[in-house]
């Protein structure tokens, strides 16, 4: 923030990126103000340009006849991915733990587009039985799988376990995903399909897993 303008220019810069905001005072000669301002504006403009390019899909070609599976498709990134694919005429299996919430998501998507086909199916990645049932149904009814998007995941606030007794993060975010891909692998390989894994940076947190 510009506080004073004479022979020198005083700025107070606040660092909001740290956990405890703090202020720093320093002086900049007025003759450096314009070059510094131009540089700052240029960096800001470049960043804004890059942000607009990040994570944007520019290909809008039709995906009609292509079959996708998206886990956790009723909310967050899964929902937005489902909506985008549906707008491009794809057929999407919405693999969700709660079918009522899947139906709510379908209703919201249908408010924006009538394209594509949406197929809600129950899948609980915290249950090997549910995963096996889901994979069996897919392999029997939909042998032409084009893409599997492993989007579903969780970050529990308290100690929890899967139906098989595994720690919930290890069971859902790793074991459940692995089993699903393994059970669908013949379907995927037969159609030269792809598997997309949505991940995070949670693994960078310094925490150990108690396998006991």
Automatic annotation (TrEMBL):
Native source species: Culex pipiens
Protein's recorded name: WW domain-containing oxidoreductase
Membrane-crossing residue ranges in chain numbering: 26-46
Family matches, as Pfam families: adh_short
InterPro entries for the chain: NAD(P)-bd_dom_sf (IPR036291), SDR_fam (IPR002347)
Keywords: Membrane, Oxidoreductase, Transmembrane, Transmembrane helix
A GO term for molecular function: oxidoreductase activity
């Amino acid at each position: 923030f510009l506080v004073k303008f004479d022979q020198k220019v005083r700025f107070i810069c606040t660092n909001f990126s740290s956990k405890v905001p703090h202020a720093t005072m320093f002086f900049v000669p007025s003759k450096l103000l314009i070059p510094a301002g131009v540089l700052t504006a240029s960096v800001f403009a470049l960043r804004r340009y890059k942000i607009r390019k990040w994570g944007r899909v520019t290909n809008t070609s039709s995906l009609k006849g292509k079959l996708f599976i998206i886990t956790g498709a009723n909310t967050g990134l899964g929902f937005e991915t489902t909506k985008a694919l549906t707008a491009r005429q794809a057929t999407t299996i919405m693999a969700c733990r709660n079918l009522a919430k899947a139906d709510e998501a379908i209703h919201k998507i249908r408010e924006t587009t009538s394209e594509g086909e949406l197929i809600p199916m129950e899948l609980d990645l915290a249950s090997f039985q549910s995963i096996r049932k889901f994979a069996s149904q897919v392999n029997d009814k939909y042998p032409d799988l084009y893409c599997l998007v492993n989007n579903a995941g969780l970050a529990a606030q308290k100690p929890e376990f899967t139906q098989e007794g595994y720690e919930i993060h290890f069971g859902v975010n790793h074991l459940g995903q692995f089993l699903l891909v393994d059970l669908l692998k013949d379907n995927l390989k037969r159609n030269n399909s792809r598997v997309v894994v949505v991940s995070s940076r949670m693994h960078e947190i310094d925490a150990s897993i108690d396998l006991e």
